[in-house]
Amino acid sequence: MAPAARKNISFPRYAEYNCAFKYIVEEALEAKYVMPPALTKRTMELGTKYSPEFVCTPFKTLLGSMIESLEAGADTLLMTHGLCRLGYYGELLEQTLRDLGYRFEFINLSDYDMSKKKEYLRIIRRINPKVNPARFLAEFAEGIRMVEYLDEITAEYYKNCGFDLPGGAYRQAYQDFLTAMYTARSRSDVESGYRNARRAMQSAPLDKPRQPLRVGVVGEFYTVMDAFSNLELEQKLADMRVEVHRWMNVTNQYLRYNGQKNMHVKIQDLCTYEMGPTATANIWWARECAERGFDGLIHIKSASCTPEIDVMPVLQNISGDYKIPVLYLTYDAQTSDVGLMTRLEAFYDMIAMRKKVL
User: Fold this and answer.
1) What SS3 class is residue 77?
2) CA-CA distance, 185 to 208, in Å (whole number)?
3) Is the C or the N end of the chain the one with fewer CB within 10 Å?
4) Exposed, middle or buried by CB within 10 Å (0-12, 13-18, 19+), for 3?
5) Whole-model pTM?
6) Which residues have C-beta within 8 Å of that of residue 147, sequence separation ≥ 6?
7) Helix, strand or coil, per DSSP, at residue 334
8) Backbone dihedral angles phi then psi of residue 49, each to the nearest 5 degrees
9) What end-to-end distance do the CA atoms of the chain give, in Å?
């Protein structure tokens, strides 16, 4: 009997996290990872063409990226579990792709009870029945550390990159870090890439005022983190010499999450019940930013995102209570870069004038 062929696994393009997916698949699971192409206008056109008309924009992006992954040679697609679309997100993506005629294996984590350890073993064996358990645990842990490093370095980058000096040493340090993560093949590669980035960013000279404009960013899980989906919002703000703070990332939401219960204690006067996948965390972070004296808040959501629509009235209350301006941005497949810049420039002028007056 011939040995089973090694799977060619892919996961839709998502911010810069694909470097960690690649590391876990190749080093921990000893399978082949097919890196999906960078998100482009074509990705959105494909996703929009084959998606239900009123589905949210992230669904269209994921669908387009999955199509491009299959075109690139993937034969196995991995989909994380989630509560959006009442937990039916993955099933709808899979059925759409099969209706288009694609043949592939679909591993949907919603099919597994992730509270039980044996379910993780089922997933591992499905991908590679011969995986070495000890190697898997060690390399998987390093892949998780890569996610933490990525979120840490990215957060520092957007706080400071807008104050980089000519020559761009700070920005170059971040790009070198991403290159190191995407090419890492061992624990030493990951750790040295992280240490080098920390040293380079700490030593890069900055022209940063003592009290820069500080803006907190909140919003829907996918759009708020993916630069392509939000049209490089954080970089645009940084280029205006704004210090950007975003709590929402994989590390905070999943790896170091302090729990909805703890968050609710701090915002129980604003919302009594759980409002959606990331709504509680967004309300909590918005109040945190307001209490820390930030100069403004920006709320990001995709069109038709019901949980984030529910968040908006609560943000209005925070805005009124703490006298902090809030800019609401809604993204769909037709959102233009020019229109976004116009709104950001007006928002910047407002908070800059307000800070000068206060």
Assistant:
1) strand
2) 36
3) N
4) exposed
5) 0.92
6) 17, 20, 250, 251, 255
7) coil
8) -60, -40
9) 77
